[in-house]
Amino acid sequence: MKLKISEIDPQQQKELLPWSLLLDADPDRQLVASYLERSRVLIAWQEKAEALSPLTAAGAVGVTVFEERAEEFEILNVAVAQQFQNQGIGSRLLDECLSLTTAQAPQKPVLIKTGDLTSPALSLYQKKGFRQIAVVKDYFIQHYAEPIYEEGVRLRNQVILQRRGS
After folding, report:
1. Contact 60, 48 (CB under 8 A)
2. 97 by DSSP, 3-state: which?
3. Model confidence, pTM
4. Residues of 58-84 as b/e, b for ≥16 C-beta within 10 angstroms?
5. Which residues make Cβ contacts (< 8 Å) with residue 96, sequence separation at least 6?
6. Residue 21: which of 4, 43, 36, 5 has the closest Cα?
7. What are the pLDDT digits (tens) for 94-146?
8. Kind and range of the H or E element at 147?
9. Model confidence at 52, in pLDDT bands (50, 70, 90)?
10. Which residues make Cβ contacts (< 8 Å) with residue 138, sequence separation at least 6?
11. Which of 26, 39, 49, 52 has its CA 20 to 30 A from that of 140?
């Protein structure tokens, strides 16, 4: 599959935000909206055979959101549409994100936080050089009004991973 990854400005190009994907990674719409205000957004689109069709949120197959802070970067959201998972899209999005953070501030570490049950995500992050630095017990119980389940198991704990800058 041919893939196009591009950065959009979430404030100027709101119509391109793939909300279904963003909410798949984090079901709290208000929280997602709050971090989009200060973040950078990369979107993966499947390139079609037709000549230059316009990009739309409906055509997005993956997304990642990240922000720079004084001491670090944090990847806040990584999602790939279910029918496109296990095709390397998440990996390509992370590679592009890490390339941008390294170019901008190579010394800064990059954090990513996820649930402790998301073994495919944890595996991908570890392949990209992230190492676990902390576990926040009962994070998803305390911070989300509705329970979150992954493969029938209630998500409780958050894992914090870090990749050192170069």
Report:
1. no
2. helix
3. 0.90
4. ebbbbbbbbebeeeebbbbbbbbbeeb
5. 5, 42, 64
6. 43
7. 999 999 999 999 999 999 999 988 678 889 999 999 999 999 999 999 999 89
8. none
9. very low
10. 156, 157
11. 39
